[in-house]
Design goal:
single chain; 424 residues; alpha+beta; Arc Repressor Mutant, subunit A; 3 domains; seven-stranded antiparallel beta sheet; 17% strand; elongated
Protein backbone atom coordinates (compact mmCIF):
# COMPACT_ATOMS: atom_id res chain seq x y z
CA UNK A 1 0.00 0.00 0.00
CA UNK A 2 2.82 2.41 0.90
CA UNK A 3 4.59 1.67 -2.39
CA UNK A 4 1.42 2.38 -4.38
CA UNK A 5 0.99 5.65 -2.48
CA UNK A 6 4.59 6.64 -3.28
CA UNK A 7 4.04 5.80 -6.95
CA UNK A 8 0.91 7.97 -7.03
CA UNK A 9 2.78 10.88 -5.45
CA UNK A 10 5.59 10.34 -7.94
CA UNK A 11 3.16 10.57 -10.88
CA UNK A 12 1.47 13.69 -9.49
CA UNK A 13 4.83 15.30 -8.66
CA UNK A 14 6.15 14.62 -12.15
CA UNK A 15 3.06 16.07 -13.87
CA UNK A 16 2.86 19.15 -11.63
CA UNK A 17 6.59 19.71 -12.00
CA UNK A 18 6.23 19.55 -15.80
CA UNK A 19 3.60 22.31 -15.72
CA UNK A 20 5.87 24.42 -13.47
CA UNK A 21 8.69 23.85 -15.98
CA UNK A 22 6.34 25.04 -18.74
CA UNK A 23 5.88 28.47 -17.10
CA UNK A 24 8.75 30.22 -19.01
CA UNK A 25 7.31 28.86 -22.28
CA UNK A 26 3.75 29.96 -21.40
CA UNK A 27 4.90 33.38 -20.11
CA UNK A 28 6.68 34.05 -23.40
CA UNK A 29 3.41 33.30 -25.19
CA UNK A 30 1.32 35.43 -22.81
CA UNK A 31 3.63 38.47 -22.84
CA UNK A 32 5.02 38.34 -26.36
CA UNK A 33 2.39 36.33 -28.27
CA UNK A 34 5.17 34.05 -29.56
CA UNK A 35 5.79 30.34 -29.11
CA UNK A 36 9.47 29.85 -28.27
CA UNK A 37 9.90 26.12 -28.72
CA UNK A 38 13.35 26.09 -27.09
CA UNK A 39 11.80 27.03 -23.73
CA UNK A 40 9.79 23.78 -23.77
CA UNK A 41 13.01 21.95 -22.89
CA UNK A 42 12.45 23.08 -19.27
CA UNK A 43 9.28 20.97 -19.10
CA UNK A 44 11.27 17.75 -18.70
CA UNK A 45 13.56 19.34 -16.08
CA UNK A 46 10.48 20.42 -14.14
CA UNK A 47 9.06 16.90 -14.41
CA UNK A 48 12.25 15.44 -12.93
CA UNK A 49 12.31 17.99 -10.09
CA UNK A 50 8.65 17.30 -9.26
CA UNK A 51 9.40 13.57 -9.22
CA UNK A 52 12.47 14.10 -7.03
CA UNK A 53 10.51 16.07 -4.41
CA UNK A 54 8.35 12.98 -3.77
CA UNK A 55 11.51 11.04 -2.79
CA UNK A 56 10.74 8.25 -5.25
CA UNK A 57 13.51 6.04 -6.55
CA UNK A 58 14.82 6.37 -10.08
CA UNK A 59 13.53 3.12 -11.55
CA UNK A 60 12.50 1.70 -14.92
CA UNK A 61 9.25 3.69 -14.84
CA UNK A 62 11.02 7.02 -14.41
CA UNK A 63 11.78 7.54 -18.11
CA UNK A 64 8.23 6.59 -19.15
CA UNK A 65 6.81 9.02 -16.61
CA UNK A 66 8.98 11.92 -17.82
CA UNK A 67 7.99 11.25 -21.44
CA UNK A 68 4.31 11.02 -20.48
CA UNK A 69 4.39 14.20 -18.36
CA UNK A 70 6.20 16.12 -21.11
CA UNK A 71 3.76 15.12 -23.89
CA UNK A 72 0.74 15.68 -21.61
CA UNK A 73 1.92 19.16 -20.61
CA UNK A 74 2.61 20.31 -24.18
CA UNK A 75 -0.73 18.92 -25.41
CA UNK A 76 -2.84 20.48 -22.63
CA UNK A 77 -0.96 23.76 -23.06
CA UNK A 78 -1.82 23.88 -26.76
CA UNK A 79 -5.44 22.73 -26.42
CA UNK A 80 -6.44 24.54 -23.20
CA UNK A 81 -3.95 26.90 -21.55
CA UNK A 82 -2.73 28.88 -24.58
CA UNK A 83 -6.22 29.52 -26.04
CA UNK A 84 -7.39 30.72 -22.60
CA UNK A 85 -4.35 33.01 -22.30
CA UNK A 86 -4.95 34.45 -25.77
CA UNK A 87 -8.65 35.09 -25.18
CA UNK A 88 -8.02 36.59 -21.72
CA UNK A 89 -5.28 38.93 -22.99
CA UNK A 90 -7.57 40.18 -25.77
CA UNK A 91 -10.51 40.65 -23.41
CA UNK A 92 -12.71 38.04 -25.11
CA UNK A 93 -15.07 35.58 -23.45
CA UNK A 94 -13.34 32.25 -22.88
CA UNK A 95 -14.79 29.60 -25.20
CA UNK A 96 -13.55 26.57 -27.10
CA UNK A 97 -15.20 27.41 -30.42
CA UNK A 98 -11.70 27.80 -31.89
CA UNK A 99 -11.35 23.99 -32.00
CA UNK A 100 -14.03 23.28 -34.66
CA UNK A 101 -13.05 26.49 -36.49
CA UNK A 102 -9.43 25.34 -36.66
CA UNK A 103 -10.38 21.88 -37.92
CA UNK A 104 -12.38 23.48 -40.76
CA UNK A 105 -9.58 25.84 -41.83
CA UNK A 106 -6.45 24.25 -43.31
CA UNK A 107 -4.29 27.36 -42.80
CA UNK A 108 -5.12 27.49 -39.11
CA UNK A 109 -4.77 23.72 -38.72
CA UNK A 110 -1.37 23.54 -40.46
CA UNK A 111 -0.04 26.45 -38.37
CA UNK A 112 -1.31 24.74 -35.19
CA UNK A 113 0.27 21.39 -36.13
CA UNK A 114 3.56 23.08 -37.05
CA UNK A 115 3.89 24.79 -33.65
CA UNK A 116 2.70 21.67 -31.81
CA UNK A 117 5.12 19.29 -33.55
CA UNK A 118 8.11 21.62 -33.12
CA UNK A 119 7.34 22.11 -29.42
CA UNK A 120 6.81 18.38 -28.86
CA UNK A 121 10.07 17.60 -30.69
CA UNK A 122 12.16 20.04 -28.66
CA UNK A 123 10.48 19.02 -25.39
CA UNK A 124 11.22 15.33 -26.09
CA UNK A 125 14.85 16.13 -26.88
CA UNK A 126 14.97 17.81 -23.46
CA UNK A 127 13.34 14.73 -21.91
CA UNK A 128 15.93 12.43 -23.50
CA UNK A 129 18.75 14.64 -22.16
CA UNK A 130 17.30 14.67 -18.64
CA UNK A 131 16.60 10.92 -18.57
CA UNK A 132 20.08 10.08 -19.90
CA UNK A 133 21.77 12.36 -17.39
CA UNK A 134 19.76 11.20 -14.39
CA UNK A 135 20.19 7.50 -15.13
CA UNK A 136 23.94 7.93 -15.66
CA UNK A 137 24.19 9.79 -12.36
CA UNK A 138 22.15 7.04 -10.72
CA UNK A 139 24.56 4.40 -12.00
CA UNK A 140 27.63 6.35 -10.96
CA UNK A 141 26.49 7.30 -7.44
CA UNK A 142 24.39 4.16 -6.82
CA UNK A 143 21.96 6.39 -4.93
CA UNK A 144 18.26 7.11 -5.28
CA UNK A 145 18.57 9.99 -7.66
CA UNK A 146 19.59 12.75 -5.21
CA UNK A 147 21.13 14.98 -7.88
CA UNK A 148 21.66 18.70 -7.77
CA UNK A 149 19.85 20.41 -10.68
CA UNK A 150 23.05 22.31 -11.54
CA UNK A 151 24.69 18.96 -12.26
CA UNK A 152 22.00 17.74 -14.63
CA UNK A 153 24.17 18.28 -17.70
CA UNK A 154 27.62 17.54 -16.22
CA UNK A 155 28.96 13.99 -16.51
CA UNK A 156 31.24 12.43 -13.93
CA UNK A 157 33.46 9.55 -15.00
CA UNK A 158 35.36 6.89 -13.12
CA UNK A 159 38.83 7.74 -11.88
CA UNK A 160 41.79 7.75 -14.33
CA UNK A 161 43.30 4.86 -12.35
CA UNK A 162 40.20 2.72 -12.89
CA UNK A 163 40.13 3.57 -16.60
CA UNK A 164 43.77 2.47 -16.84
CA UNK A 165 42.99 -0.76 -15.00
CA UNK A 166 40.16 -1.70 -17.34
CA UNK A 167 42.28 -0.68 -20.34
CA UNK A 168 45.02 -3.02 -19.09
CA UNK A 169 42.43 -5.78 -18.65
CA UNK A 170 41.42 -5.42 -22.31
CA UNK A 171 45.07 -5.17 -23.30
CA UNK A 172 45.88 -8.41 -21.51
CA UNK A 173 43.20 -10.05 -23.66
CA UNK A 174 44.45 -8.23 -26.79
CA UNK A 175 40.90 -6.85 -27.17
CA UNK A 176 41.81 -3.38 -28.45
CA UNK A 177 39.95 -3.63 -31.74
CA UNK A 178 36.63 -5.03 -32.90
CA UNK A 179 38.39 -7.90 -34.68
CA UNK A 180 39.69 -9.12 -31.30
CA UNK A 181 36.57 -8.42 -29.20
CA UNK A 182 36.02 -10.73 -26.21
CA UNK A 183 33.19 -11.75 -23.92
CA UNK A 184 32.20 -9.40 -21.10
CA UNK A 185 32.81 -12.08 -18.48
CA UNK A 186 36.47 -12.39 -19.50
CA UNK A 187 37.09 -8.69 -18.84
CA UNK A 188 35.18 -8.75 -15.52
CA UNK A 189 37.23 -11.75 -14.43
CA UNK A 190 40.49 -10.02 -15.41
CA UNK A 191 39.44 -6.73 -13.79
CA UNK A 192 38.41 -8.49 -10.56
CA UNK A 193 42.09 -9.18 -9.93
CA UNK A 194 42.63 -5.49 -9.17
CA UNK A 195 39.27 -4.50 -7.59
CA UNK A 196 36.21 -6.12 -6.04
CA UNK A 197 33.87 -7.75 -8.53
CA UNK A 198 30.92 -5.42 -7.82
CA UNK A 199 33.05 -2.37 -8.58
CA UNK A 200 34.52 -4.11 -11.64
CA UNK A 201 31.00 -4.60 -13.05
CA UNK A 202 30.10 -0.99 -12.27
CA UNK A 203 33.25 0.41 -13.88
CA UNK A 204 32.72 -1.76 -16.97
CA UNK A 205 29.14 -0.48 -17.36
CA UNK A 206 30.08 3.16 -16.80
CA UNK A 207 32.86 3.14 -19.38
CA UNK A 208 30.66 1.22 -21.81
CA UNK A 209 27.96 3.89 -21.39
CA UNK A 210 30.57 6.49 -22.32
CA UNK A 211 31.19 4.55 -25.57
CA UNK A 212 34.85 3.87 -24.70
CA UNK A 213 34.10 0.17 -24.37
CA UNK A 214 32.34 -0.80 -27.61
CA UNK A 215 30.21 -3.75 -28.56
CA UNK A 216 30.73 -5.76 -31.75
CA UNK A 217 28.76 -8.91 -32.59
CA UNK A 218 27.90 -9.56 -28.94
CA UNK A 219 31.47 -9.07 -27.74
CA UNK A 220 33.41 -6.05 -26.42
CA UNK A 221 36.65 -4.19 -27.12
CA UNK A 222 38.41 -1.10 -25.77
CA UNK A 223 38.57 1.85 -28.20
CA UNK A 224 41.56 4.12 -27.64
CA UNK A 225 40.18 6.51 -30.26
CA UNK A 226 36.95 6.92 -28.25
CA UNK A 227 39.00 7.45 -25.09
CA UNK A 228 40.89 10.35 -26.66
CA UNK A 229 38.23 11.80 -29.01
CA UNK A 230 35.05 13.08 -27.34
CA UNK A 231 33.35 13.85 -30.67
CA UNK A 232 33.86 10.28 -31.83
CA UNK A 233 32.66 9.04 -28.45
CA UNK A 234 29.38 11.00 -28.75
CA UNK A 235 28.83 10.22 -32.42
CA UNK A 236 25.96 7.86 -31.60
CA UNK A 237 24.11 10.51 -29.56
CA UNK A 238 24.69 13.09 -32.29
CA UNK A 239 23.35 10.67 -34.89
CA UNK A 240 20.20 10.02 -32.85
CA UNK A 241 19.67 13.78 -32.39
CA UNK A 242 20.16 14.35 -36.13
CA UNK A 243 17.70 11.60 -37.02
CA UNK A 244 15.12 13.01 -34.56
CA UNK A 245 15.55 16.52 -35.97
CA UNK A 246 15.28 15.24 -39.53
CA UNK A 247 12.11 13.36 -38.61
CA UNK A 248 10.51 16.53 -37.16
CA UNK A 249 11.52 18.59 -40.21
CA UNK A 250 10.22 15.88 -42.56
CA UNK A 251 6.80 15.94 -40.87
CA UNK A 252 6.68 19.74 -41.17
CA UNK A 253 7.62 19.58 -44.88
CA UNK A 254 4.99 16.88 -45.54
CA UNK A 255 2.25 18.97 -43.93
CA UNK A 256 3.38 22.02 -45.91
CA UNK A 257 3.31 20.08 -49.21
CA UNK A 258 -0.12 18.64 -48.42
CA UNK A 259 -1.38 22.13 -47.60
CA UNK A 260 -0.01 23.61 -50.83
CA UNK A 261 -1.50 20.79 -52.89
CA UNK A 262 -4.88 21.26 -51.20
CA UNK A 263 -4.78 24.98 -51.93
CA UNK A 264 -3.95 24.29 -55.58
CA UNK A 265 -6.79 21.81 -55.92
CA UNK A 266 -9.27 24.12 -54.19
CA UNK A 267 -8.30 27.15 -56.24
CA UNK A 268 -8.42 25.58 -59.71
CA UNK A 269 -9.22 21.94 -60.23
CA UNK A 270 -11.11 22.73 -63.46
CA UNK A 271 -8.52 25.05 -65.01
CA UNK A 272 -5.20 23.82 -66.36
CA UNK A 273 -4.15 27.24 -67.60
CA UNK A 274 -5.13 29.29 -64.54
CA UNK A 275 -3.14 32.53 -64.22
CA UNK A 276 -0.85 32.46 -61.20
CA UNK A 277 -0.57 36.24 -60.79
CA UNK A 278 -3.71 37.73 -59.20
CA UNK A 279 -4.93 41.22 -60.00
CA UNK A 280 -5.90 43.39 -57.04
CA UNK A 281 -9.26 45.09 -57.56
CA UNK A 282 -9.61 48.86 -57.30
CA UNK A 283 -13.26 48.48 -56.34
CA UNK A 284 -15.76 45.72 -55.60
CA UNK A 285 -19.49 45.27 -56.18
CA UNK A 286 -21.00 43.42 -53.24
CA UNK A 287 -22.61 40.12 -54.20
CA UNK A 288 -26.36 40.20 -54.93
CA UNK A 289 -26.55 43.97 -54.33
CA UNK A 290 -26.06 47.17 -56.30
CA UNK A 291 -23.60 48.58 -53.73
CA UNK A 292 -20.05 49.28 -54.86
CA UNK A 293 -17.13 49.58 -52.45
CA UNK A 294 -14.09 51.71 -53.37
CA UNK A 295 -11.27 51.78 -50.78
CA UNK A 296 -9.88 55.16 -49.74
CA UNK A 297 -6.82 56.44 -47.91
CA UNK A 298 -4.43 53.52 -47.24
CA UNK A 299 -6.99 50.71 -47.46
CA UNK A 300 -6.73 48.15 -50.24
CA UNK A 301 -8.81 45.13 -51.22
CA UNK A 302 -7.30 41.72 -50.55
CA UNK A 303 -6.88 39.29 -53.43
CA UNK A 304 -8.67 35.93 -53.45
CA UNK A 305 -5.67 34.04 -52.05
CA UNK A 306 -5.02 36.70 -49.40
CA UNK A 307 -8.67 36.56 -48.34
CA UNK A 308 -8.40 32.77 -47.97
CA UNK A 309 -6.05 33.28 -45.02
CA UNK A 310 -8.89 34.85 -43.06
CA UNK A 311 -11.52 32.32 -44.07
CA UNK A 312 -13.28 31.00 -41.00
CA UNK A 313 -16.86 30.06 -40.22
CA UNK A 314 -17.87 33.27 -42.05
CA UNK A 315 -17.47 33.48 -45.85
CA UNK A 316 -16.43 37.09 -46.44
CA UNK A 317 -17.64 38.90 -49.56
CA UNK A 318 -14.55 41.13 -49.38
CA UNK A 319 -11.85 42.20 -46.97
CA UNK A 320 -9.91 45.46 -47.12
CA UNK A 321 -7.03 46.52 -44.88
CA UNK A 322 -3.93 48.67 -44.79
CA UNK A 323 -0.35 47.40 -44.82
CA UNK A 324 0.11 47.90 -41.07
CA UNK A 325 -3.10 45.96 -40.33
CA UNK A 326 -4.32 48.83 -38.12
CA UNK A 327 -7.40 49.29 -40.33
CA UNK A 328 -9.53 46.31 -41.34
CA UNK A 329 -12.93 46.18 -43.03
CA UNK A 330 -14.81 42.90 -43.32
CA UNK A 331 -17.98 42.51 -45.40
CA UNK A 332 -20.17 39.42 -45.34
CA UNK A 333 -23.75 38.42 -46.11
CA UNK A 334 -25.81 36.45 -43.61
CA UNK A 335 -28.64 34.57 -45.33
CA UNK A 336 -30.35 33.98 -41.99
CA UNK A 337 -30.08 30.19 -42.08
CA UNK A 338 -29.34 30.06 -38.34
CA UNK A 339 -31.81 32.78 -37.34
CA UNK A 340 -35.21 31.97 -35.92
CA UNK A 341 -38.04 34.31 -36.86
CA UNK A 342 -38.24 37.25 -39.23
CA UNK A 343 -35.84 39.70 -37.59
CA UNK A 344 -35.27 43.31 -38.55
CA UNK A 345 -31.71 44.63 -38.93
CA UNK A 346 -31.95 46.27 -35.50
CA UNK A 347 -33.20 43.07 -33.86
CA UNK A 348 -30.42 41.14 -35.59
CA UNK A 349 -27.82 43.52 -34.13
CA UNK A 350 -29.41 43.45 -30.67
CA UNK A 351 -29.41 39.65 -30.72
CA UNK A 352 -25.78 39.52 -31.82
CA UNK A 353 -24.51 41.66 -28.93
CA UNK A 354 -27.12 41.13 -26.24
CA UNK A 355 -25.30 38.33 -24.44
CA UNK A 356 -21.85 39.87 -24.26
CA UNK A 357 -21.94 43.64 -24.78
CA UNK A 358 -24.29 46.46 -23.91
CA UNK A 359 -24.06 49.02 -26.68
CA UNK A 360 -26.12 51.81 -28.21
CA UNK A 361 -27.63 51.23 -31.66
CA UNK A 362 -28.23 54.11 -34.08
CA UNK A 363 -29.50 54.40 -37.66
CA UNK A 364 -27.29 55.77 -40.46
CA UNK A 365 -27.75 56.05 -44.22
CA UNK A 366 -25.08 54.76 -46.59
CA UNK A 367 -25.39 53.99 -50.31
CA UNK A 368 -29.08 54.94 -50.17
CA UNK A 369 -29.70 52.19 -47.60
CA UNK A 370 -30.54 52.46 -43.91
CA UNK A 371 -28.01 50.65 -41.73
CA UNK A 372 -28.19 49.88 -38.00
CA UNK A 373 -24.87 50.77 -36.40
CA UNK A 374 -23.11 50.17 -33.09
CA UNK A 375 -19.60 50.94 -31.81
CA UNK A 376 -17.26 48.88 -29.65
CA UNK A 377 -13.94 49.86 -28.09
CA UNK A 378 -11.33 47.11 -27.98
CA UNK A 379 -7.69 46.78 -27.01
CA UNK A 380 -5.36 44.69 -29.16
CA UNK A 381 -1.67 44.28 -28.26
CA UNK A 382 -1.79 47.47 -26.19
CA UNK A 383 -3.43 49.60 -28.93
CA UNK A 384 -6.98 50.99 -28.70
CA UNK A 385 -9.37 50.41 -31.59
CA UNK A 386 -12.91 51.39 -32.52
CA UNK A 387 -14.94 48.60 -34.08
CA UNK A 388 -18.02 49.70 -36.00
CA UNK A 389 -20.70 47.15 -36.88
CA UNK A 390 -23.21 47.99 -39.62
CA UNK A 391 -26.23 45.85 -40.52
CA UNK A 392 -28.92 46.34 -43.16
CA UNK A 393 -31.54 43.93 -44.45
CA UNK A 394 -31.87 43.42 -48.20
CA UNK A 395 -34.86 41.22 -49.05
CA UNK A 396 -34.39 38.21 -46.75
CA UNK A 397 -30.64 38.53 -46.10
CA UNK A 398 -28.45 40.75 -43.91
CA UNK A 399 -25.53 42.77 -45.28
CA UNK A 400 -22.91 43.24 -42.57
CA UNK A 401 -19.80 45.42 -42.22
CA UNK A 402 -17.22 45.23 -39.42
CA UNK A 403 -14.77 48.14 -39.57
CA UNK A 404 -11.69 48.25 -37.30
CA UNK A 405 -9.61 51.43 -37.09
CA UNK A 406 -7.44 53.24 -34.47
CA UNK A 407 -9.52 54.94 -31.79
CA UNK A 408 -7.98 58.36 -32.47
CA UNK A 409 -9.13 58.35 -36.14
CA UNK A 410 -12.50 59.03 -37.75
CA UNK A 411 -14.72 56.61 -39.65
CA UNK A 412 -15.17 57.21 -43.37
CA UNK A 413 -17.01 54.05 -44.46
CA UNK A 414 -19.93 56.05 -45.93
CA UNK A 415 -17.45 57.73 -48.33
CA UNK A 416 -16.37 54.34 -49.67
CA UNK A 417 -19.86 53.04 -50.53
CA UNK A 418 -22.06 54.10 -53.45
CA UNK A 419 -25.14 52.81 -55.21
CA UNK A 420 -24.73 51.49 -58.73
CA UNK A 421 -27.44 52.08 -61.33
CA UNK A 422 -29.07 48.85 -62.41
CA UNK A 423 -29.64 48.18 -66.11
CA UNK A 424 -33.20 47.31 -66.85
Amino acid sequence: MKQNKNNLFGILGSILGAFVGALPWLLAYALGNVIIGLLSIFIAIGSYMGYKITKNEINKNFSKLVFFSTILTVTISFLVIMPIIRQAVNGFNITFEWIPNTLKNWNLLSAFLFDYIVSIGIALIGAIAVITTVTKKQQETNETGDINPSQLFSYQSVSPEEIQKIKDAFGNKNAMSKENAVQREEIISELSKTMIEARAIQVFNLIKDQQIIRKYKGKFYFSERAQNDQLYRNAKLLTITLIASTFVIAIIVIFTIIGNNKKFQDNGTNSKTETIVEIRENNHIIKNTNIKFTPKDDLQLLTKSEKEKYKNVIEYDFIAMNEKHTKMLYCFIDYGLNIEGNLTAREYLEQAFNENVRTEITSVTMANSEFQKTNLNLEEAGDLYTVECYITKINDKFLCFNYWYPKNEQSNLNEMLETMETNQ
